[in-house]
Amino acid sequence: MKKRASWSFAALALGTSLSALADYKLNLQTPVTKLGEEVYDLHTFLLVICSVIFVVVFGAMFYSIFKHRKAAGHKAANFHESTTVEIVWTIIPALILVAMAWPATKVIIAQKDTRGADMTIKVTGYQWKWGYDYLDEGISFHSRLATPQEQYENYEGQKPVRNADYMLEVDNPVVVPVGKRVRLLLTANDVIHSWWVPAFAVKQDAIPGYIRDTWFKAEKEGVYRGQCVELCGKDHGFMPIVVNVVSQEKYDAWVGEQKKLMAANQDDPNKVWTLPEMVARGQKVYDSNCAICHQANGKGQGAFPALDGSKMVVGPKADQVHLLLKGKGAMPAWEKTLSDTEIAAAITFTRNSWGNKTGELIQPAEIKAARSM
Amino acid sequence: MTTTVHTPDHAHGDDHHDHHPHGLTRWLAATNHKDIGTLYMWFAFIMFLTGGVMALCIRAELFSPGLQFVRPELFNQFTTLHGLIMVFGAIMPAFTGLANWMIPLMIGAPDMAFARMNNWSFWLLPPAALLLMISFAVPGGAAAAGWTLYAPLSTQMGMGMDLTIFAIHIMGISSIMGAINIITTILNMRAPGMTMMKMPMFVWTSLITAYLLIAVMPVLAGAVTMVLTDRHFGTSFFNAAGGGDPVLYQHIFWFFGHPEVYIMALPAFGVVSQVIPTFARKTLFGYHSMVYATSSIAILSFMVWAHHMYSVGMPVTAQLFFMYATTLIAVPTGVKVFNWIATMWKGSMTFETPMLFAIGFVCLFTMGGFSGVVLSIAAVDIQLHDTYYVVAHFHYVLVAGALFSLFAAVYYWLPKWTGFMYSETRGKIHFWWSMIAFNVTFFPMHFLGLAGMPRRIPDYAVQFTEFNALASVGAFAFGIAQIYFLFAVLLPTIRGGAGPAPAKPWEGGNTLEWEVPSPAPFHTWEQPPSRELVDKLAAQQQLH
User: Fold this and answer.
1) Is the Cβ of A20 closer than 8 Å to some Cβ of chain B?
2) Which residues are in the Cytochrome c domain (chain A) (predicted)?
3) Which residue from A minimizes the CA distance to B143?
């Protein structure tokens, strides 16, 4: 079945003299879920039917074009309707469509049946990264593009050496055990995103304020890559998805590691920080959350204002705290995404970096107070 | 495009009324359907080139991996405005222009029903286009939420979004007024003896399209108005935190959006149904079933909107309902394609440029239909939704569908409009050049989509490099072909082209527009065509 699909594609490709490129990927990615295989085969089935219709329809048309030319001396016939023919070519396509819709219906029902999950992961779309919460294990992390900026920002004509998985690599991949039915609960923090891993044949929009679900069961260990597929703003093209499908043992080990890591990273919300500590912590928060728009040098870019010398940043700190918590226009609300410590650190960092020298230190407790206002 | 130069042998019985304002007033105060049609066509062509330049900026950026020319936010502005401009600025006004020019000529009416409203519906368009262009210069730039303007992304944008919303309101008013004019003209001003079932197919499809426009443009206006009030007046239609639902926007938008697809496709069907019989020298096969197929497509188009939303997570019953309804559309669409082929069958065909574009339309539209069938199957669409496969699909039906049929129409009626024949050789060069470049651009996109490249991304994984480079080369070639059309075909024809055109340049033409001189005088059919003439032409078309 799969072989046939690539052949029919090669045949179509010939039509536009692309046959020389036949080595390149011409078809759907190799599925690693049962549902993915069914979708793959369904697509092949549709392709074969369309190819047959293509041959019949285009065959008739081009036969006519070559035979029934005035230049070939053909005289026009005088018929202009035939009820029989018209009924036939209404009924036959209708029957073909039934033949297509029947197997598709079964696949759709299976796609939509999210019962019987072995584990559940909540997926949250952010501008522009993915957040994952393993609801059974209590593990949470964010997953961002890992391709370094100098590999894709080539405005000066740079020709960088690119990673093998350029644009499709992340800092923290999702890890799931092989052969387990994984239910995904999807939502978003700001705008609509869409979570897609082609090898699983899973695509589900993540809608802010609502929860949608879908599921997959990967049958083969490996690393599977996908991307956000719903336009979500500036860096829509830069929020890939990576899923590592591993053995149960490796998965258990990974879970243990993650739990330790999370405990180590936990900020004590009551800690009182010193200025250098807070600026250092804030640098990290800034780099991973803010620099994407406001730039590492604080100069901003396009619609995104500069923070260096900004009235908002060097002005009264309550305004800046409010802006970070609640957002405004293109500026996201960070109150749900970042902890008190992280927001305090980011604000402290921006008020004491580049040309901004306020010397002010914001403590997590102040953010906590602002939240409850 | 109209010219007021008349040679004596072109003299027409009604010609002595041929006085009208000259210079700028002629165009600003135009109430003549031909002048307004001409304005529409030129406006559409300018917008087509503008939207085309944006497409080329997109393709230049996508020529190779990495960001070389445009920042991601500007990239998104280009994809958004490219879509909006091509849909609302190029294709829709072009068909309204055609309808303005041709419907009165084809039904034997002296002008459109509401001449002054006609003027207004055109002159609303340039300000709307201006708003869209200005939006690039405002803080935050133009709208960047895609032409679909999905909330809540569209509630985040800067002032460019407000300008876009305003522009859509204005263009919507223009479309509705144009539609009212078309419906009134067709229903009330047909020549004696021309019953509904004796109208040329282009008139039929324009009539049905006009009804679709009146039905759905207010829906779009409602959707973008809700975005506007969400943005500025504290409502929460699409904001869950205030009790709204972002998906509501998509339901409303696509309730407009899917009929909109047919608003762009049905008049194209009409043009092709005029051109193919003319050059096959054989009457249209299955006129009645064409009318019924067009009507059923129009009705079905209101019941399939959520097939654009298979991945939002609808209940399984909704997923299935919309899949079944969508596959149904393939039946009347198939009937149309079969009818065109049966029209060619055993004809006596010649292949002048209009016929080439019409056959090109049938070929490529059918290809777009195949990918449409694949996409209609919800289970498979889950893999293809929002990928380049969809980009390939809708460019096959819109560029090859609407645009190629528009070119067929322009070549077909250019002799009537200008009074001169275009250069057949150059027309053919334009066709083959466009045809090849189009396929080089968009065919590889099927592969990109299948292999997993999402749409609307400014940069991509390296395995997509080759097909993207190929598509970019094709796109530039396609763009140059249209510049060739302007300078080597259109402008030379207006200046005299390959010589004066006879009243009926095409042997097989048997509709009323070929009964007036070329170029069509400023006023035509002030006396309606005689009953005998109408009956004679209907008999030639085997309509009864």
Assistant:
1) no
2) 277-354
3) A233
What are the domain boundaries of chain B?
A: 8-66+85-231+248-540
**Shortest CA distance to A364 belongs to which of A264, A262, A265, A273?**
A273
Report helix, strand or coil for A131: strand
Q: What is the interface pTM, i.e. ipTM, of the complex?
A: 0.90
Q: Does B378 touch chain A (CB under 8 A)?
A: yes
Could you tell me which chain B residue has the CA closest to the CA of A112?
B316
Would the CB atoms of A76 and B345 count as touching at under 8 Å?
no
Q: Do A58 and B366 touch (CB under 8 A)?
A: yes
Asked if A149 reaches chain B (Cβ–Cβ under 8 Å), the answer is no
Domain annotation for chain A: domains and CATH numbers: 2-112 (1.10.287.90), 119-265 (2.60.40.420), 275-371 (1.10.760.10)
CB contact under 8 A, B386 and A229: yes
CATH superfamily of B8-66+85-231+248-540: Cytochrome c oxidase-like, subunit I domain (1.20.210.10)
Residue with token string 């709307």: B128
Measure the CA–CA gap between A65 and A68, rounded to whole angstroms.
6
Q: Which of chain A's residues have a Cβ under 8 Å away from the Cβ of B152?
A: 190-192, 208
Q: Tokens 């080139």 identify what position?
A: B49
Per-residue pLDDT in tens (0 to 9) along chain B, 544 residues: 444 444 444 444 444 456 678 888 899 999 999 999 999 999 999 999 999 999 999 999 999 999 999 999 999 999 999 999 999 999 999 999 999 999 999 999 999 999 999 999 999 999 999 999 999 999 989 999 999 999 999 999 889 999 999 999 999 999 999 999 999 999 999 999 999 999 999 999 999 999 999 999 999 999 999 999 999 999 999 999 899 999 999 999 999 999 999 999 999 999 999 999 999 999 999 999 999 999 999 999 999 999 999 999 999 999 999 999 999 999 999 999 999 999 999 999 999 999 999 999 999 999 999 999 999 999 999 999 999 999 999 999 999 889 999 999 999 999 999 999 999 999 999 999 999 999 999 999 999 999 999 999 999 999 999 999 999 999 999 999 999 999 999 999 999 989 999 999 999 899 999 999 999 999 999 999 999 999 999 999 988 7
B315 three-state secondary structure: coil
- Chain B within 8 Å of A238 (Cβ-Cβ)? yes
How many cross-chain Cβ pairs, A to B, lie less than 8 Å apart?
312
B362 neighbourhood in chain A, CB within 8 Å: 61
The beta-carbon neighbor of B377 closest among A104, A204, A238 is: A104
* Nearest residue in chain B measured CA to CA from A302: B140
Q: How many CA atoms lie within 13 A of B204 on its CB side?
A: 25
Both tokens of A249, joined, read 């043992």
In angstroms, the CA B209 to CA B203 distance is 10
Separation of alpha carbons B212 and B214, rounded Å: 6
Geometric angle at alpha carbon A115, from A110 and A119, rounded to 5°: 115
Active site residues of B: 82, 111, 147, 174-175, 258, 260, 262, 273, 307-308, 333, 336, 455
